[in-house]
Write a structure and sequence with these properties.
Blueprint lengths: L2 H8 L7 E4 L2 H8 L7 E5 L3 E5 L4 H7 L4 E4 L6 H11 L4 E4 L6 H11 L2 E4 L1 H9 L3 H21 L9 H14 L4 E10 L18 E11 L2 E2 L2 E7 L4 H20 L4 E2 H14 L11 E2 L10 E2 L6 E2 L4 E4 L2 E4 L3 E4 L2 E5 L4 E3 L11
Parallel strand pairs: 1-5, 3-4, 5-6
Antiparallel strand pairs: 1-2, 2-3, 7-8, 8-9, 8-10, 11-14, 12-13, 15-18, 16-17, 18-19
Length: 354
């Protein structure tokens, strides 16, 4: 069953005749085709992808099981959709209220002149569960990410800046065939490593911990990987903190399985850090779901109300951050199964000293 068929099955649950998909990532999920311009309309029986002359040939080649419609230069895309809506006697349409603006929704409402029903959850719920084919694509981009990490590892020195190293990650990622970065690389060293989402600076890489957090994209699918290294010999407390974070990650991973609450996974990891006396220095959650976006809807944190389903993919990334001194984060990616999880990250986690 492809994703268009999955969407068709659940449309009746949202009390609408069709769903209008405007968000680029959701269009990619549904059709396997990515373009900056396009609209997808899906009913229980049919689907139509509307695009202009810039993408029509590529769309016709890439998309199957959907009518691909050319929007002419003399016609607005809303008019093309309106024609299909009228012809097929569609009286209510679901829309992605979590993605589109009030003005955008109003413009479509005014043009189509029919009821528009909030249906943001329809796509989100389907995207939570990754098929084996989806997972294979995520493993592929993860392997490339690991190759990039292993390539930049011997380059690291105190003669280069944090920005230099971030640039090397992007350069080598593109050389290895990725489509794009999933987010700007986080490369922070010394005191800067105490900032979980610190920005690489023009300072030379300093002594102490060096945290490298980066994500790449291929065919729309994202990776997300973090490793913390040490520049110079770590002192006893640094070793203790690193090992505490590693143990916390291991305990959180042990708690992961289909049907477990996200908060319970976070609590299992957090207890290790709290018992070691560093609880106040772990300010974020254990993890978040990953897929066609690097941050999707599920989370494992103290604020989470999510039940983590088998088939979801989440990060496992506890950390300890001592303000003005240093920080440690270790991140893997987990595919949740009925009885546990499959860790698709294969980089070693013993503390690397440079």
């Amino acid at each position: 069953m492809n994703n268009i068929q999955r969407i068709r099955q659940v449309i009746p649950e949202y009390n609408c005749d069709a769903i209008l998909i405007l968000n680029q990532v959701n269009r990619l999920f549904a059709t396997g085709f990515s373009s900056s311009a396009g609209v997808l309309l899906v009913t229980e029986d049919n689907a139509w992808f509307f695009t202009d002359s810039r993408y029509i040939e590529a769309a016709q080649t890439a998309i199957t099981g959907t009518d691909v419609m050319l929007v002419s230069k003399d016609e607005k895309i809303t008019e093309s959709v309106k024609a299909i809506v009228t012809k097929n006697k569609i009286t209510s349409i679901g829309f992605e209220e979590g993605y589109i603006s009030y003005k955008c929704k109003k413009d479509w409402n005014d043009k189509l002149g029919i009821e528009m029903v909030p249906a943001h959850g329809l796509l989100n719920d389907l995207r939570k569960i990754k098929t084996r084919s989806d997972l294979d694509k995520m493993i592929r981009i993860q392997r490339i990410s690991e190759k990039v990490f292993n390539e930049i590892l011997p380059l690291i020195s105190t003669d280069m800046t944090e920005k230099d190293l971030a640039a090397e990650i992007i350069y080598r990622a593109l050389k290895n065939g990725v489509d794009d970065k999933a987010f700007d690389p986080i490369v922070v060293s010394g005191p800067n490593s105490s900032r979980p989402h610190g920005v690489p600076g023009n300072e030379k890489i300093g002594k102490g911990f060096l945290t490298i957090d980066f994500g790449l994209k291929l065919d729309g699918w994202c990776s997300d990987t973090t490793r913390t290294l040490c520049i110079g010999i770590p002192d006893d407390e640094m070793v203790t903190i690193y090992n505490t974070v590693l143990k916390a990650q291991e305990e959180g991973i042990k708690a992961v399985r289909g049907g477990v609450k996200g908060i319970d996974v976070d609590t299992a990891a957090r207890k290790v850090i709290e018992d070691a006396g560093y609880g106040e220095y772990f300010g974020h959650g254990f993890g978040h779901s990953i897929g066609l976006e690097v941050h999707e809807t599920l989370s494992a944190s103290q604020l989470s109300k999510d039940v983590l389903p088998a088939g979801a993919v989440i990060s496992a990334e506890p950390g300890i951050y001592l303000p003005g001194r240093y920080g440690v984060r270790i991140e893997d990616t987990l595919y949740i199964t009925e009885n546990g999880s499959e860790n698709i990250t294969k980089l070693p986690k013993t503390l690397t000293v440079i």
